Amino acid sequence: MTTNNRLTTSWGSPVGDNQNSMTAGGRGPTLLQDVHLLEKLAHFNRERVPERVVHAKGAGAHGYFEVTNDLSKYTKADFLSEVGKRTPMFIRFSTVAGELGSADTVRDPRGFAVKFYTEDGNYDLVGNNTPIFFIRDAIKFPDFIHTQKRDPKTHLKNPTAVWDFWSHSPESLHQVTYLMGDRGIPASLRTMNGYGSHTFKWVNKEGDAVWVKYHFIADQGVKNMDPQLAAKIAGEHPDYHTEDLFNAIENGDYPSWTLKVQIMPIEDANTYRFDPFDVTKVWSHKDYPLIEVGKMVLDKNPENYFAEVEQVTLSPGNMVPGIEPSPDKMLQGRLFAYSDAHRYRVGANHNMLPINRPKNEQANYQRDGQMRFDNNGGGSVYYEPNSFNGPAETPENKTSGFAVNGVAESVSYDHDDHYTQAGDLYRLMDADERERLVANIVASMKEVKLDEIKQRQIQNFYKADPEYGTKIAEGLGLSVGEEVK
Q1: 253-285: per-residue pLDDT in tens?
Q2: Which residue numbers are catalytic?
Q3: Angle subtended at Cα 411 by Cα 405 and Cα 413, rounded to the nearest 5 degrees
Q4: Is the residue at 66 inside a domain?
Q5: What is the CATH number of the domain that holds 35?
Q6: Nearest Cα to Cα of residue 230 among 196, 187, 261, 273
Q7: What total of structural domains would you count in the chain?
């Protein structure tokens, strides 16, 4: 068999762009015709059976969300419509890279996925405990996660692959700085913030829209864990976070988070100094201050882990009137990939399971499929449009539009400054925290086999802040390349 260094699709067609998904213009939505993107995501979702490909290890709890501030001028979402209104919800916390039996206290982002059972259907806000992410285009997600998983030859974690990918993807630098710092290992699931991470769109009853980012601020405060203690607990008590959450709720010590949002006028997206749809960037709180929305309280443990925590299926594509997606390319890919993963892992009728079923009555023409355990629509009309008074569309709930322009092609974001915000985060840390950050990175990068990879990543750190790059280079016994000074 001859070696072919030319990247191809599964049917052998050469790939012209593996870094940028195809969109309708620079800020347009991702196009269905990008079959390479769809193939990558669909194949990726089917690579593990039967646990989740990512976020396999998780803990969950029931609770409620209560509105404390009237923001109806921004959104017509019914569950946010009046102060004092309570909506039942379920949350699943998780690590990202490890398997179902992995340790809770590893250095890893934490999934922070909330399902609101609203009167207009389920709204899923599927985020992390970080306001940013490693990549900004879904076409790179399978490759990124492959580096976090086990080497196919050794079946061991591979730091060389991790840092090789990051060094070739400078957009990851902001999240890497966040992850390798103190917040990379939360002390508990109760003492970490949560974020929607992506930019979303809110639309009010008049049809006026704004861009929005979500922040769940832990009322218990943010507390982190020393890496040496985390390693000790990982060996002695790998389910530490899971038990801590369960016991707190069982003992009546109900954790809570205050939900706040940043609001950006629609037109600001064209002039803001960073692309507001780039999930590797944040919006300055000085430019767009946090506005309180309400409080989330967890007050009930699951009765059965498998039925609730393991079988809960959340997707950022599950939205309600008043909340819509943005042109964020990472979000656009997740709108497809998450529900596709659930259809594969749990089944075509996963949304009919009790933990996933909406509180309001479902009314559609979906029939059959594996594990259909209701009356399958009975003898009612099974197509639309029809003349038999079957469920019909409601034009007032159409998604609002936004202008797009440009050529349909694979394009990157307009802004490629991957260093300013990472450097700002580094400089925001005090001296002791910076030292811990550097020590964590050096310890991890010492396992990388090629100096070429180390050198490339050192240059990324140096571009963010000269001290940052220099200290890591010194810790690795290397020097910063002259070309970046």
Answers
A1: 999 999 999 999 999 999 999 999 999 999 999
A2: 55, 128
A3: 85
A4: yes
A5: 2.40.180.10
A6: 187
A7: 1
